[in-house]
Amino acid sequence: MTDTTPNRLLDAIHSPDDLKGRSRAELKQIADEVREEVIDVVSVTGGHLGSGLGVVELTVAIHAVFDAPADKLILDVGHQCYPHKILTGRRDQMRTLRQGGGLSGFTKRDESPFDPFGAAHAATSISAGFGFAKARDLQGKNNHVICVIGDGSMTAGMAYEAMNNAGADKSRLIVILNDNDMSIAPPVGAMSNYLSRLVSSRPYRGLRRIAKKVVSPIGLESPARRAEEYLRGFAMGGTMFEELGFYYIGPIDGHDLDTLIPILENVKAMREGPILIHAVTQKGKGYAPAENSADKYHGVSKFSVITGEQAKAKPSAPAYQKVFGQTLTKLAETDDKICAITAAMPSGTSVDVFQTAFPERTFDVGIAEQHAVTFAAGLAADGMKPFAAIYSTFLQRGYDQVVHDVAIQSLPVRFAIDRAGLVGADGPTHAGSFDIGYLGALPGIICMAASDELELARMVVTAADIDDRPSAFRYPRGEGTGVEIPDVLQPLEIGKGRVLREGTTIALLSYGTRLQEALRAAEMLMAQGLSATVADARFAKPLDTDLVERLARDHEVLITLEEGATGGFGSFVLEHLAKVGALDRGLKIRPMTLPDVFQNHDAPQAMYETAGLTARHIAARAIEALGRGDIAEIDRFARA
Fold this sequence. Notes:
Strand content: 5-15%
Number of helices: 25
């Protein structure tokens, strides 16, 4: 419930218009109250905390100066958007954050007119902002476009591609670099803030133009400009941005409203080309547990506001990520060619486990998936054994490199595809829905999916032994099934699945994590006297064609299961059976995939229910295809 303590100014803020005309002291109080609100909300909902705390003053200042939604505010990645949502009429909904039917944890176009561009992947804001700026110009409008991009996103090449284009075009565009970690500039201070206010002011800009007019006729424009820019770059670190065509202002203290607001007002009045404001902030600002944490509480579960202690469910099994990191580390103890690559996700992928043991063989390339893939290809081409651990949704960004630099050259890069399948509260932008299809389309690649943590460990071992082609193995977020992992692991036979349960009427062929649901579905079917075989495909490519043909030949119904989009494993099975004529013999085959929609965020189990990939759905699909059995009885069995 929203705090309505008397004299809370935030209670009167229902849109950015309510910030207009406020005194500097009032805006500071509002910023403090927004910070308290963010901490209180996330303690209940979980989510991204540190990034939002770091931009509270910046968000207040932007909305106090500019006129959203007419002026377009684009937040890169969007995980820092909680203060923005509070100030744009969504405060009463904040406790629905990342819950089914509630607010998204990122900006989302269909959620509010104050979210002009949806985001959840890094480094898209400047490209999108430039698009908004050109659309404005072409339509004769006069609004501002403001992009807020973090220093982490500035490690991605797309940001520089956009700046290169926008800088050459000279359209009006405001980019705010939220620098909270890289330390790419000298420490901020009173002199730096003063210089930034100075160079954004009208008198300074006028003097600069006069100087150019004076020196141009006598041939001194270039030396004068270079001297001026050198001095400004030496003092303020802006030479690189100036060379890209942006007027650089900074670095400034991103938490000082007395500095931020005058600079933003000056910039709002400027009409000459793209501008970059370099604001230095502190991630987790104003909340001691976040400030003192190594990751600044980037992503948190529910927590105690007083202590900062996060609520942790007691795991019944190790997380898949830990199994990957520990297995790879163990293999590297006897194989000095194994190395690990991550794109700014060392802890999320458990590459940090490997890094602790082998720092010289660990490479965090930043938010640069394209580079990560081709870098891995270079390592592989000279005899190393690179494992590129990248979330499925982020590997999409390096797909051209997977095709051109890895697959065509048949280089043995091993892709550890984390977060494969649905991801709950992070929603469609982070779901790993498409890798089965987009990798399975490539000639020569080996594609595997782990059904439990032991299978994942064996796939790591298998991939290490593959030295003549690329390979990939996918695994989900979260805990395994609790299966024991022996000290000695045997590699899998390439292209061979396994049968876990023999039956006669229905065949359930699972690729990846839905195997346990298939086994439960078989029990439901057995309760009605319907015998079911359950098989784990293990490989989508090369497909175990012997297993597929046997299941098709010996059963009336064949159901394929995968936590992936249409066009993946089920399609590969259908194509093979069509080629060998198996579909002509009356086989009833039903592929079960993720639905052909971008599923909104929700609790994981609720998402599986929506997707129709639970044991109840599997059994019901089998009965429907078979034409006999009682679906209502399946529902009663599931409830029991």
